[in-house]
Amino acid sequence: MKTTNTKIVFSAGVIAGLLTAALFAYQSYFSWLQPQQQVEYLPETMSDISFIPSAYAATNDKQTTIHSNSAITVDFSAEAVGATPVSFAPAVGYWLIGADNGNKVLVVDGRKWSRGNAATGLADKARALYGKRYAEFLDNVKAYAYYPFAVCQPVDNFTNGDISMRFKSIAGRIDQGAGILFDLKPNGDYYALRANPLENNLVLWRFKRGKRSSISWVRNVLTPSRQWHDIKLHTEGRLIKGYVNGKQFMAFRLPETVSGKVGIWTKADSVVYFDDFKVVPND
Question: Has residue 273 got a pLDDT over 90?
Fold first, then answer.
């Protein structure tokens, strides 16, 4: 009897130990996917946040547009930490200016994302972007509310050339996508070239008439979380090329030439930092 009891106690101890180890492993594995309780992209004290006059702020209602041979770089250095971006107009999701090791960045905080919710004040932003056609844009954007995106204000229309940016995925259980949105139409249709640290791939998505479809997919494109990476889109007529960290991974020919607004795209609960959004036309 004593031997049996000893075995039972020993077995219970082993099971308890295994459960504890499994719980620890689970928490350790998922902890890096979740942001810290302290919002990482904001200073610990609000006194560290100061407003820096923005080159865009002076033309908040009259944003400059990119012309055929004009190139722009948005590095967010002139924006206010903790505020909604001025250089980008959020359409879906929660976007604000944060800081990464003292460098100002654009942040999408998917922890505040709620499926089906467009960004605050979207109707006014849509009206500013597309005038009389804003209602049509609103209808399609709400259909795509699973995919947060923000529109680059200074770029009115992009056709041929390069769009690039840096990104650093921080967290997200559903997704950690970081993408370049382009060919955004007044009715809300668009394309997005995106990388994803959770899936290690590069995908070209098409969003048309309320439906999403993947039209080109490349595996084994490594972009580990919590590291900075570069992504670039090159367009030339109907031909588009996708690059990650300086290497070309994709080439695809679209059914029509590109012409529309551009921006930054992500998905669901992603928490991602963005910086150095560059547009270099080649018309």
Answer: yes
Q: Counting Cβ atoms within 10 Å, is residue 114 exposed (0-12), middle (13-18) or buried (19+)?
A: exposed
> Which value, to the nearest 10 degrees, does the dihedral of the CA atoms of residues 33, 247, 152, 114 take?
-20
- The residue that leads in pLDDT, 162 or 37, is 162
Q: What is the pLDDT of residue 209?
A: 83
What is the C-alpha to C-alpha distance for residues 225 and 140, in angstroms, rounded to an integer?
31
Q: What percent of the chain has pLDDT over 90?
A: 54
Which pair of tokens denotes residue 189?
């249709």
Convert the pLDDT of each residue in 29-67 to its tens digit: 444 344 444 568 886 654 444 333 333 333 333 334 444
The Cα-based distances of 194 to 175, 177, 218, 233 in angstroms read: 11, 6, 11, 10
> Cα 3 vs. chain centroid, distance in angstroms?
61
Contact yes or no for 184/158 (Cβ under 8 A): no
Maximal C-alpha separation, the chain: 89
CATH assignment of 46-281, given 1.10.10.60, 3.40.50.360, 2.120.10.30, 2.60.120.560?
A: 2.60.120.560
How far are the Cα atoms of 2, 148, 220, 275 from residue 91, in angstroms, in the given order?
70, 7, 31, 18
Give the burial string for 5-26 (b: 16+ CB within 10 Å, else e).
eeeeeeeeeeeeeeeeeeeeee
Short-list 283, 276, 242, CA closest to 72: 276
Structural domain boundaries in the chain = 46-281
Q: Cα dihedral angle (122, 185, 169, 100), rounded to 10 degrees?
A: -60
Phi, psi of 246 (to 5 degrees): 85, -5
